[in-house]
Amino acid sequence: MFPLGTVLFPTMVLPLRIFEPRYLEMIAECLADDGAFGVVLIERGFEVGGGDVRFDIGCMAEIVHAASLPDGHQAVVSVGTDRFRVAQWLDDAPYPRAVVEPFDRPLETDLPIADLDQKLRRHLALVSESGVDVGPLDFEMSREPAVALDQLCALAPLGALDSQRLLSSSTSSDQAALLASLLDAASADLMGQLGSR
Nearest CA to 55 among 13, 100, 22? Predict the structure, then answer.
């Protein structure tokens, strides 16, 4: 398990620079096995040093590239795959470990992807107008609604706790409604800030 200060969604690319000995050991074992590890958001505490409190809903990460660096660190690129729920945290020695179970959700296809896509693009345009570089706005969504929804959540510039709420939604329709609400609130906030300049 890799507790982080960021939320990983299915389909999301996660680049990491590994330097702590415990995680170097974990990544070496993952590469020797199936190349996968779990990512959970840290609720309280810090990424380095341990002693943190973690959320119980996370996402599996599959390593797609790994390279040893001259300083002994490891560069890893992984991609989010499936949600999970932590059934039991185990001892952190030699690195964080847990027993997990799938966090399955009903398959839903009637999701307002086009509306959410427009909301996100409008919000990113506002963020860009405020002077923050948001990168290219020509991204393309998957044709599979649940996958597209995760892509939109991963692209939305939200705080970690809001992202965790999205990841933890018990249904895709709940996730879509929450994303719409969060984007509306964030856009209204930003429009107020831009209008007061």
Answer: 100
What would the pLDDT profile of 156-175 be if each residue is shown by its tens digit?
999 999 999 999 999 999 99
Residue 74 pairs in a beta bridge with: 18, 68
What DSSP letter does each residue of the chain carry, written as one string?
-EEESS---TT-EEEEEE-SHHHHHHHHHHHHTTSEEEEEEEEES-SSSS--EE-SEEEEEEEEEEEE-TTS-EEEEEEEEEEEEEEEE---SSS--EEEEE----------HHHHHHHHHHHHHHHHHTT-----S-----SSHHHHHHHHHHHS---HHHHHHHHT-SSHHHHHHHHHHHHHHHHHHHHHHHHT-
Give pLDDT tens digits for 41-57.
Answer: 999 876 565 667 899 99
What distance in Å separates the CA atoms of residue 173 and residue 106, rounded to the nearest whole number?
Answer: 10
102 DSSP β-pair partners: 84
